[in-house]
Amino acid sequence: MLDLILPLECGGCGAPSTRWCPTCAAELVARAAEPRLVTPRVNPGVPVFSLGRYAAARRQAIVAVKEHGRADLVGPLAGALYTGLARLLGWGLLDAPLTLVPAPTRRMAARRRGGDPVTRLALAATAQLPAVTVVAALRLSGFTRDSVGLSSADRQRNLAGRVRLSTPVRGPVVLVDDVVTTGATACESVRALQTAGAEVHAVLALADA
């Protein structure tokens, strides 16, 4: 009866009567060589790591959390982010203590989504990593357009000088984002952090497009 009133479906493939099916869960699990190093078109000047391609179940889950309020999918995505962080720390590519700084989001988008999903994911992912803290230190100032459909150059112009530091950050920092596309957001975010004296060691994304 509940399924008739509030249809339940997998956030990755749409399978009925489950929030997150085993097949999609397996797809989200990081492979042995992940996170992998990627090269976005706009170079932020620090290594950029991605947990997988922005496709299939990974893409659907990210969109479901961001655009459709599927808070139940924060857990699976946060689990993937946790694995990525743990591996980078275990491989010696990052050192603790470490601060995660979520990439900034437009205020209008954050209000529509009931908060910033990247910050929510980062907080959930670091709950079992006591040496890693999360500081939502970046904000967008002025008017910025939604980046969907913009070219690489247009994304750069859209964000140029508009990423600001709202909270001081000290020590090693990793910028975390849901999706790296052109790298424009990462570039401006790293610039803002470094200008304020932060030591940005890497960018880590749930997916790259």
TrEMBL record:
The keyword Transferase applies. It comes from the Bacteria. Keywords: Glycosyltransferase, Transferase. InterPro entries: ComF/GntX_DNA_util-trans, PRTase-like. The keyword Lyase does not apply. GO terms for molecular function: glycosyltransferase activity. This is Phosphoribosyltransferase. It comes from Mycobacterium adipatum. The lineage of its organism: Bacteria, Bacillati, Actinomycetota, Actinomycetes, Mycobacteriales.
